[in-house]
Specification:
The protein has about 190 residues and is of the alpha+beta class. It has helices at about 5-20, 90-110, and strands at about 35-40, 60-65, 75-80, 115-125, 130-145, 145-155, 160-170, 185.
């Protein structure tokens, strides 16, 4: 695909105009009947503002759930204009960060705390800004202090946009108390 300065400028101007329109207002994010909404504790991500603790209204909005039949971590995610990478589309780093956090939370749902040692992400499709997508993350294998988790982000048609695999390491037992994090479901 050939780009010239004029077409890039037109694209940027178009997106700047769209950024001020209501199309980029975050919609209500809801789960499926088989999902229970999760309450992410304040000490998870304290001091961070990119994903879970993000206070900006134009970047990422997400809501986490636990799927009842298999305990997978699920999420509904909206990507706003501040996640832009290629003109009109979500930056891959935004998806990568969400996959990383979500796979870590999937590990936490199993009762273990672990930290990312290696993250691999594959991008399969471009994702337009303003999209609402679904994420699924789960632990694939755990042995000793090592945990392997997988995650995928897919659209309303079920098409996978990006997928990741994370290798996580549990801290030594004497360091776990420092992290004391517990996730619970929303009381109804």
């Amino acid at each position: 695909m050939d780009y010239n300065i004029s077409s890039v400028y037109e694209g940027i101007t178009y997106m700047m105009k769209k950024n001020t329109e209501s199309e980029f207002s975050a919609p209500e994010l809801t789960g499926e009947p088989d999902w229970s909404e999760l309450v992410i504790p304040k000490n998870f991500g304290s001091g961070r503002q990119f994903i879970t603790g993000d206070i900006r209204t134009d970047r990422i909005r997400l809501k986490y759930f636990k799927r009842k039949h298999d305990n997978a971590l699920m999420a509904r995610i909206w990507f706003g204009p501040a996640t832009e990478g290629p003109v009109g589309h979500v930056h891959g780093g935004s998806m990568s960060a969400i996959l990383d956090e979500s796979m870590g939370l999937a590990v936490l749902l199993t009762g273990s705390i672990a930290f990312t040692a290696k993250l691999t992400v594959k991008y399969l499709k471009m994702l337009p800004l303003g999209s609402v997508v679904t994420l699924e993350a789960k632990v694939k294998n755990a042995s000793g202090r090592r945990v392997l988790a997988t995650g995928k982000i897919y659209n309303e048609k079920g098409e996978v946009i990006s997928k990741g695999e994370g290798f996580f390491i549990k801290p030594p037992v004497n360091k776990i108390e420092e992290h004391n994090i517990e996730i619970r479901t929303v009381e109804k």
